[in-house]
Amino acid sequence: IEVQVSPNDSDWATLKTTLEITAGDVNISGTVNARFVRLKVKTAEGGDSVEDLYLNVK
Fold first, then answer.
1. Residue ranges of the domains in the chain?
2. Per-residue pLDDT for 26 more than 70?
3. Helix (H), strand (E), coil (C) string for the chain
4. In contact, 25 and 15? CB cutoff 8 Å
5. What is the pTM (predicted TM-score) of this model?
6. 4 within 8 A of 25, measured Cβ to Cβ
């Protein structure tokens, strides 16, 4: 999982930490100073499919 943050939903920066999930449920917590946060998820099979999961920052 690649975590990206942005102040304006156009200039995205990738956080240095990358998480690799092999099985089970995972909770991600932390603090970022950004207006927008998204997770880029690649499939384990081919690694080509990418889905953006946008998180609501409160």
1. 2-20+31-55
2. no
3. CEEEEECCCCCCEEEEEECCCCCCCCCCCCCCCCCEEEEEEECCCCCCCEEEEEECCC
4. no
5. 0.36
6. no
